[in-house]
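Key idea: predict the complex, not the pieces.
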Amino acid sequence: MNLTLRIWRQPDPQNKGRMITYRVTDVSPDMSFLEMLDMLNERLTLEGEEPVAFDHDCREGICGMCGLMINGVAHGPERATTTCQLHMRQFKDGDTIDVEPWRARAFPVVKDLVVDRSAFDRIIQAGGYVSAPTGSAPDAHAVPVPKADADAAFEAATCIGCGACVAACPNGSAMLFTAAKVTHLGLLPQGQPERRDRVLDMVAAQDEAGFGGCTNAGECTPACPKGIPLEVIGRLNRDHLKATTRPTR
Amino acid sequence: MYYVDGEPIADTKAPDGPIETRWDRRRFGAKLVNPANRRKLTVIVVGTGLAGGSAAATLGEAGYHVKSYCYQDSPRRAHSIAAQGGINAAKNYRNDGDSIHRLFYDTVKGGDFRSRESNVYRLAQVSVEIIDQCVAQGVPFAREYGGLLDNRSFGGAQVSRTFYARGQTGQQLLLGAYQALERQVAAGTVETYTRHEMLELIVVDGRARGIVVRDLVTGEVRTDFADAVVLATGGYGNVFFLSTNAKGCNVTASWRAHRKGALFANPCYTQIHPTCIPQSGEHQSKLTLMSESLRNDGRVWVPLKAGDTRAPGDIPEAERDYYLERIYPSFGNLVPRDIASRAAKNVCDEGRGVGPGGLGVYLDFADAISRLGRDAVEAKYGNLFEMYERITGEDPYEVPMRIYPAVHYTMGGLWVDYDLQATIPGLFVIGEANFSDHGANRLGASALMQGLADGYFVLPNTINDYLAAGPFPQVDADHPDAVEARTAVEDRLARLLAVDGDRTVDSFHRELGRIMWDYCGMERTEEGLRKAIELIRALRDEYWQRVRVPGSAATLNQSLEKAGRVADFFELAELMCIDALHRSESCGGHFRAESQTEDGEARRDDENFTYVAAWEWAGASAPPVLHKEDLSFEYVQPSQRSYK
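Result:
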């Protein structure tokens, strides 16, 4: 099939970007979206133009490195699918496709479609862990964990940190990301000792990083390639309230 | 003359005596570093996968000053994240006869008697601590209704010792290590440098003292220094272009260390995984693994007759060949990876393959669905089925999956001693980047085990013995060795940009990968390998004359990143073929057509090849030097594998 792409090109953070139109021909429906961009980049290289910069790595939907706004939708039209797993059979011959980077104050554009998501690492640094120095662990069976809790913790822990939730949110909030980690660790016995400090510190780090506030718009979950449920935000809010009223320090 | 013989080498750090106490005795014999002195010692760790992430976190906890580097935009994205199946540990929670000794035995046997007994025994010992550590970090392993951890049997093991987190075990383990790492960043012991790529090792007075890195955003090339350098930079499967590795996985860090004097061991040992989604066309950029656990319930088959193009549902039972069950009645669909892969290749070579280009076999769940019900199958494999459908557009509940082997893991890597130290003092190599534990073939669910064993438990103990002699004399960016290394990097980048030819980096990489797949893939012959070496050399020369790298070195330039990696892959590819050529036996993942039994199974040659082949770089125009490390087996008697 033949497609028209309108792609955001921006040389660096200092210079303004703009949408540039490219035509791609002979796109196979079995190609992934990124393979289609690879094809464009091969051509641009040979034509003496700089290829389009975009982030990607595992190309199997788990590393969280890729992420494009495709026709204004984070990761494109297919639900629960990262950009690298989106295939061209989702599009039709003659389509015009807009391709943009994540747009959020906390994710500045680095170049073209590449953004800086280091703010996510800073949120994790603030408390997204259990303090368990290597070697200090008791036997793995010392503390049984009810299966339902373990399963729910796992579900929250499947977040890949891609940032689609932020890109989809009208406020540019990272609440789904933060709440997924708060939920994952808060549901497990190992996460209890630090539970209250964790939620306070992670939310503070999130605010400091320039993410917007959560107004329960609910745009994040549908954009999440791993389907992290909205209820994790409810859990975060409950933990935050408890921690604020009964601080540990 | 492809190579020359050098002096044999020995692993001088491995204690002798009873194997059960070797690790204890080594730890006791190793020097310690006073806690107050640790912060004066700096360690650079390159790579943030299971090995690098866990090592950096643990060294930080111990109080060392750690600098952690990765090329991705966050340490959490290293390719360990994509491991699906699980992690082995000799917990014997199932009371099914498992033990440290059995895991050790299985791993040595699985490695086809080409690994070190001492290392493998230690790996099995440490495995139990890994699970404890990960649970304490909050890794949400699968659990049973009683709240205890679930286990499954994996990849041909006859005990259930694999711990897992649905199909995302690597992700959960890596996030555990990543979170521990970020905790140390907050504590001030670890500094992380993301979007930085190591392009050279700095060796001063015979010791590894630093690295040259390129900031991938600004393009700045700079040097960094430490008392020791740890490489945790993963495997080199991307030399094949198509593999299950992430697109960015590369050999550059290891290769640069190799060129500076570190021996590279067993480069030809590559693991080809039998259950990947077949290639759909020339545009294919990578291959996706479907967890091996699928073989627990799926049945592998092809049409009995060559050239049968009927839809799978139209082929009656009598005209199907469930070839694994037929050839290997006792293991059936669960034979080890190399056997399953080669069997798939053989039936496709006979013209019985299915799907585009005849490069695929069926993995059929119809029996499992009728025996267990669709819901039970969905509960076990739902996410894998969805992934398959997303990629292929076919519903595996209705139509059998198509699978084909793909390059997945590389057992070879930089040579290390029992302390995981390379032949350059102060250079340590952990995880897939080293060669030490898997021999000629790795068992399923053992990569995660080894990465975390090295990073959490082995390296943080053994590196003390080296660091106890530090801090070493201060080195800075103006030191002649540092200037030379940085200049070499800048020159290489400039050369790549200056060619300005008429072919893209990817077009060369694809062509190189095709050569490697055809001649150094599942089956290797003397004739093919000789041909491959000539083809690689010619293509490499062409590369430096015709490659086009657009843009400049002073900015984010993904073409330039790829160009440097592919340049190193060319050199590695040649060494892989030389190694495969010299090893005229078949063992593990290395199958030489000339060395097979009458019924087509691999024939090992213990008399001539019970050694590690460790290669020394002798310069761009000189043949590599082969150093042999003899292997001895005191606890597991070498036997010919038989899965019939």
